[in-house]
Amino acid sequence: MKERVEEVLQKVRPSLQADGGDVELIDVSDDGVVKVQLTGACGSCPFSTMTLKHGIEMRLKEAIPEVKEVVAL
Q: Taking every annotated instance into account, which residue ranges of this chain make up the domain NIF system FeS cluster assembly NifU C-terminal (predicted)?
């Protein structure tokens, strides 16, 4: 599943990079929790929670039903 998550993140990255940020995949657990780290401008952005939940998590859940939650470290 980690490879599938990385494929989806590759599709999300260009929008984040356009705003000076990025996302790094840290881990994917067996119970469907994806751990990421928002970097660059995304790491300190006040809207990072919205980006995480309504952008990254939503896209991952649509593409990979096994994903239960995305958390930022």
A: 5-71
